[in-house]
Amino acid sequence: MLKKIRVGLLSALFLLSGNIFAAESVQPVIQQKVDLNTADIATLDAELIGVGPKKAEAIFKYRTDNGSFKTIDELKKVPGIGDKLFEKNRDKITVSQPVQPNTVAETPASAEQPTSTETH
């Protein structure tokens, strides 16, 4: 009888410990968005729904010819990308904003006032 209780307790402990370890190993999957302004052809092909190599090349070419995408809606201007394909990917895409150049004006050395060197 005591042996059956021990086996039952060990079995329960084993099952509970397995669930605890399984819970620790579950990692949430965080889907990163595809940046239309930085993604290469392979990434566009692999990550976007309904986009294969040819459409990925068209997106890349559009960006090369027209500059950075300003909004995700601009993707619909790419030949072969219609409303349906855009809607399938709306939540998967983003556009980064171009980095603005430093607008702090530096005083050029030639514009500095010379110090007085007069001696009395």
TrEMBL record:
Gene3D superfamilies in the record: AF1531-like domain
One cellular component (GO) term of this entry: type II protein secretion system complex
Transmembrane segments: none
UniProt KW keywords: Signal
Polar residues bias locations: 94-120
GO biological process, one term: protein secretion by the type II secretion system
Pfam families per the UniProt record, alphabetical: HHH_3 (PF12836)
Region named Disordered: 92-120
Residues annotated as signal peptide: 1-22
InterPro entries reported in the protein's UniProt record: Competence_ComEA_HhH, Endo/Exo/Phosphatase_dom_1, RuvA_2-like
Keyword set includes DNA damage: no
NCBIfam families given in the database record: competence protein ComEA helix-hairpin-helix repeat region
The protein, known as: Helix-hairpin-helix domain-containing protein
Source species: Beggiatoa leptomitoformis
